[in-house]
Amino acid sequence: MPETPANSGARVVVLTQGGPNPEILVNTLKRHFPNLVVIEEEPESKKQMLRQKARRFGWPQAIGQMATMAASKFGKPFTRKRAEEIVHQFHVDPQPDPSLRRLKVGSVNGPDFQGLIDELKPAVLFLVSCRLLKQSTLEAIPCPVLNFHAGINPAYRGQQGGYWSRVMRDEANFGATVHLVDAGVDTGGVLYQARVTPSKKDTMHTYPLLLTAAGTSIAVRAVGAALSGNLRPQELKTTTSRQWYHPTIWTWVWNGINRGIW
């Protein structure tokens, strides 16, 4: 684990919609940067998500994607043992820390969020599992904005990067990225990446947890670099860039039955 920088007393703000995986990063960052505050954004409703997907892909594709998301959610109890193994292997904590200051906001792109930023005056804003920031929102934030992405950018931007790297027979790029945030979907400059080999027991239910647990060190490195004024995006060898989405239920089942990739 990287050393904590001398100016670790500067305020770090984490923006998230919550959940066990983001809490792993929150708890890890808190150990290194004690003056940490969490802003919790209200998640979009399933109805809003379905309508957005339908506008983009059409209703059949949207319903297929939402069905996979539902299957992933309801399948998690069956992968609890593997999830516990990951937590113990990487010595991470997915439980919310009740001692942390937590503030709630409806949307990152609303006026309430900007009011909190003005009040908190963070030295760095770290995003994990939240809405896409509009350009106007980004321009109003006076500090570096970083994002944790469970996928290797730019080849696996968007959703389920670990799953798609396996489907594409590209397990060498099964990993996580911390990058600068711009108005695109995971298109900002790459700061650090971490790669890990999935177990045969891993599925779409555990890929994000595995990638988050394996990526805690790069989150600490990135925040430390931001506080030290030493952010240096990498010059990547690949120019392949693609945004991915949740697979439809029929794609997920086909890959599971025929290739053992669930």
What does this structure look like?
This protein is an alpha/beta fold. It has 10 helices and 9 strands. It has a single domain, classed as 3-Layer(aba) Sandwich (Rossmann fold), CATH 3.40.50. The strands form 2 sheets. Strands 3-2-1-4-5-7-8 form a 7-stranded mixed beta sheet, sandwiched between helices. The chain has a two-stranded parallel sheet with strand order 6-9. Helix 1 links the parallel strand 1 and strand 2. Helix 1 runs parallel beside helix 8. The radius of gyration is 18 Å and the shape is globular. The mean pLDDT is 94.
CATH level 1 class label:
Alpha Beta
Structural class: alpha/beta
Provide the number of structural domains: 1
Q: Helix amount, in percent?
A: 40-55%
Q: Any guess at the CATH architecture?
A: 3-Layer(aba) Sandwich
The description of the largest β-sheet is: 7 strands, mixed
Model regions low in confidence, pLDDT < 50 over at least 5 residues: none
Residue fraction in strands: 15-25%
Number of strands: 9
CATH level 3 topology: Rossmann fold
Please state the average pLDDT score. Answer: 94
**Number of helical segments with 4 or more residues:** 10
CA-based gyration radius: 18 Å
Question: What is the secondary structure topology, with strand pairs?
Answer:
Blueprint lengths: L11 E5 L3 H13 L3 E6 L4 H12 L1 H17 L4 H11 L10 E5 L5 H10 L3 E5 L6 H5 L5 E5 L7 E2 L2 H7 L7 E6 L9 E6 L11 H8 L1 H12 L15 E2 L4 H11 L3
Helix pairs in contact: 1-8, 1-9, 2-3, 4-8
